[in-house]
Structures are given as C-alpha cells and as structure tokens.
C-alpha cells in the first residue's frame, strides 16, 4: 500500500514569505507527527496529532509555526514570515496509534534564501 | 536528563564484526521501543521494534530490552559496509496524548571493509 506522502519534495522561497508543507499519512493511521531535521542534526519534534485529541504543540519553535490536520487525515504545516534558520528537512510520520511504529515520508527540503 | 539518550559515536567496527548500539530512557512507564536506521540524506527507516523484556531477533538484527535498567540495545551481526548509517532509538513516553514517541539523537555507525 501507499506510504506517507509529503509535498513538495523541495521548496525554495525568500525570507519573509509564508510556506505550506503537506503530509498525507498512511490510510487509517490515527497518529501523525511533524519533525524538523537540520543538516547533520537529530530529529526535532514539532507537533503530534492523535485521533481527535488536541494536538501536542510543545515542539513548535515559535508562533510562526502552526499545523492542522483536517478530517483526521491530511496535515498541513505552515511557517509564516520564514527566516533563514527555518531551512531544514521537514519530516512527517504516521502510525496506527499509540505504541505502534511510525512510518516516515521522504520529507520536504525547505531552503530560505 | 534527556528522555532518550544515545552515544553519538561514531562507532567504528570492522566488516563481519558485531556492532552494539545502546540506548537508555528516562521513563519507567515506557512500553514500546523502536530502532530506526537513517542513511545520509534519507528519512528514517524502521528496522526493529520490541515491547517485552528480553531479546528479539530478525535476521542479522537483535533488539534487547531491559525495563528494570531502562536500557534497550541493538546488535548487528556480521556487519556490512551497507550498515553504515545513523541509528535512532525511539521510545514511547506515557502520559500526555497517547504515548508520544521520543527519539534519541542517534549513533553514527561506520563499518570498515
């Protein structure tokens, strides 16, 4: 079956612009995570959606970052007024629920000029 | 104390040797434990998961879990140069919304031919 799908795969934009990153999880997966990974660094947790519960937003680095998950499926991560330090690979993962393995998408490589 | 700790490495082993990767975690209530492999420029790939104390074997990989010591390890037998990658330990943390999965920073493994 289809895995986690992320789009776009690459995004180059100018500082100050807003960007939207999309994640389409594996069908039926109730949990969805967003991570950020800078070059040579580990995974930085951003936000976690589990079913209909309020999301865990504890990893969002600033109020410029927001995410939503519509209908318990597709998620969009929005970064407003982008800064150069936002340049990174943004990874999405989904799982069948608590205690289940996460499966990652291929990521979106974001470059802020 | 970090929630999930790994030695950053690099861990260097000769081809054919056993590579031993270690991970400790902070919460005694954690129930699920995962090992991911991440090649440079790629997204993490699930290679093992373990839920119960003891050993779990899958091909050349063995995951070992000791909940009393809050320790999980990954053994790679007959290491190959293609095993060279960063290995990420991930542990579900109870509480909050459905056992959020927390990643360690990863151990770099280098297998020398």
What do these coordinates show?
In chain A, β8 and β9 form a beta hairpin. Chain A has no helices and ten strands. Chain A is globular, with a radius of gyration of 13 Å. Helices cover 0% and strands 46% of the residues of chain A. In chain B, the strands form two sheets. In chain B, strands 2, 4, 5, 9, 10 and 11 form a six-stranded mixed β-sheet that branches. Chain B is globular. Chain A binds chain B through residues 31, 33, 35, 42-43, 45, 48, 50-51, 53-56, 91, 95, 97-107, and chain B through 31-32, 34, 42-46, 49, 51, 88, 90, 92, 96-106.
Strand segment tally of chain B: 11
Q: Helical percent range of chain B? A: under 10%
Sum up the overall morphology of chain A in one term: globular
Give the helix proportion of chain A (percent range): under 10%
Largest chain-chain contact? A-B, 26 and 24 residues
Oligomer: heterodimer
Name the average pLDDT of chain A: 93
Largest sheet report of chain A: 6 strands, mixed
Order of helices and strands of chain B: EEEEEEEEEEE
Portion in strands of chain B:
over 45%
Task: Tally the beta strands of chain A.
Answer: 10
* Low-pLDDT ranges of chain A: none
Cα radius of gyration of chain B in angstroms: 14 Å
Mean pLDDT of chain B: 93
How far apart are the termini of chain B? 36 Å
In DSSP terms, counting alpha (H) and pi (I) runs of 4 or more, how many helices of chain B?
0
Task: Detail the topology: elements first, then pairings.
The complex is a heterodimer of chains A (113) and B (113).
Chain A: E1 5-7, E2 10-13, E3 19-24, E4 31-37, E5 44-50, E6 65-69, E7 75-79, E8 88-95, E9 103-104, E10 108-112
Parallel strand pairs in A: 2-10
Antiparallel strand pairs in A: 1-3, 3-7, 4-5, 4-8, 6-7, 8-9, 8-10
Chain B: E1 4-5, E2 11-14, E3 19-25, E4 33-38, E5 45-50, E6 54-58, E7 61-66, E8 71-76, E9 85-93, E10 100-103, E11 107-112
Parallel strand pairs in B: 2-11
Antiparallel strand pairs in B: 1-3, 3-8, 4-5, 4-9, 6-7, 7-8, 9-10, 9-11
